[in-house]
Amino acid sequence: MISSGEPGVTASVDGDRAALRCGDWATLREAAVPVRTEVFIVEQAIPAELEWDEGDAVSIHCVAFAGDRAVGCGRLLPDGRIGRMAVLKPWRGQGLGGAILERLVAAAKARGDAVARLSAQCHAEGFYRVHGFLPDGPLFDDAGIPHLPMKRALR
Fold it and tell me: Does residue 61 contact residue 33 with C-beta atoms inside 8 Å?
């Protein structure tokens, strides 16, 4: 299992439990790429050239593992933006996305960030509201998907 940071049991599907690992892109890239590819490129038809960017190399990544398989991920950029939140279909609705999000919020808070920001796909606005994020600007289009800027105060 790829490991960096402290594990945390977060969800279970058919008796398979997921543990979170946080670290840099060099450590977690191999695990995060298949999850992001499945969710963003295959399911949502986002062009591959829009998925991978310079933010990966400078972000704190959080990946959820069920055994040796990555089943969810997200990232925290240096400017406090959280993004690339993805959970594979069988794991959705089990609390895993929320656990990844809260781990990234905790990382932002620990590093001294005053605010965490993200661009929520509009269908997921309610999920982010449950986690304390509020709208912070007008809707916009990103890769053909409507998004809403949101923020959460950390202090």
Answer: no
Which residue ranges form the domains of the chain, and what is each CATH number?
A: 9-153 (3.40.630.30)
Q: Are strands 115-121 and 134-135 parallel, antiparallel or unpaired?
A: unpaired
- What are the tens digits of pLDDT across the range 21-48? 999 999 999 999 999 999 999 999 999 9
Q: Evaluate whether 155 touches 62 at the Cβ level (below 8 Å).
A: no
> Which of the four pLDDT bands, split at 50, 70 and 90, describes residue 142?
confident
Q: Model-level pTM?
A: 0.89
